[in-house]
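Go through this pair.

…
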Amino acid sequence: MSFTRQLSEMSASELNDAIDDTNFPQAHILSRGRNNSVCSTSSTSGTSSLADRAQTSQPEETHPGTPAEDIVAPVVPVAGNQRPRLILKTNGSTPESDGTQPKTPMTPRTSTTPGHEKCTFHHDLELDHKPPTREALLPDMARSYRLLLGGLGENPDRQGLIKTPERAAKAMLYFTKGYDQSLEDVLNGAVFDEDHDEMVVVKDIEMFSMCEHHLVPFYGKVSIGYLPCNKILGLSKLARIVEIFSRRLQVQERLTKQIAVAVTQAVQPAGVAVVVEGVHMCMVMRGVQKINSKTVTSTMLGVFRDDPKTREEFLNLVNSK
């Protein structure tokens, strides 16, 4: 099983924990703390590609409570003046069980699991399986919206609401279309070898998402920067990465981290920085009703976290008009 598939099969909570601060999943065992980064450095000539490393990753299961000290990644020296590369590390060892806790598979159900032979979608970050097509959900969703209208005291059969359940169901599928997309499909080979090692920034990418706590929208802008290590990403693909993860039920904090991890997985840069500024309708329309409030979240990985000058340069570029 490739590492790309391992990462995509993690649940939302597992991914959120795994990429806390600068940490990345390492054979599904999580390293904690800012000083225990599992990002290693490597030169272009001295380190194999992510795909090559992924082939050596074999563990399918792990156990809670594994000491973080056992899985801290070594730092490989960099030859010459080449910039260190931020890569996702895997570990080929599987810890032995102490007999106190049952073995818990860290991967979701698969198409070989009894009762799921016809399921075709087992690799999403939030869902572990789904019907053959999302359109198959429309009848049940429309019935649910009809019940909701009746629960509000409305008449679902009046002229203005007759087709509302179907329209609402289709709209919700569109709002969450990111569940149908994967990083590999979106990149579509648009990763290019280029002798460029200066900062690349795409800022003010429009973002629309759905708050998973209240099922109301939040929207805003995303700015992404990365320091290439001889590989660059098609600029439009950064915006498409934002679309993958924003078009799901989300919280802004997780969305920011998922975008940063996806860029790292795509081009293995020396560092990635993501800043998201969002307006949440759950704060504007209900609750405290603070219409001018904005939420800003950021994720800094690699050089952007370690080097204050690099981080300052990125933030100045993002905040400039």
Summary: The radius of gyration is 22 Å. The chain is about 30% helix and 15% strand. Residues 54 and 283 are 42 Å apart (CA to CA). Strands lie at 61-62, 104-105, 191-193, 200-211, 217-227, 231-233, 249-250, 271-280, 295-302.
